[in-house]
Amino acid sequence: MKLKQQFELQCVCDEYILIPAGDDNVDFSNIIGLNPVAAFLWEQLHSRESFTVDTMVELLLQEYEVDEPTAREDCQMILDCWVEMGLCE
Fold it and tell me: CA separation (Å) from 32 to 11, 14, 57, 63, 66?
């Protein structure tokens, strides 16, 4: 899986949002809010050629004090949302 590159992560007033980048993306109804964990994962994965749920879990385990089953469940839920919203290819 790979994240689409046409979205930029921004922090605005302590809120993380994904904004479509580029001149043809002036429709601001496409702004997507992320929680801090999803924003951390987006930052880590955005420049990678590909990733899996296992990659996401490993990143969470390195950064947060969380057990593996909880990290895996959270990562799968985040990835499912990203796929549903069309943020992955």
Answer: 12, 14, 22, 23, 25
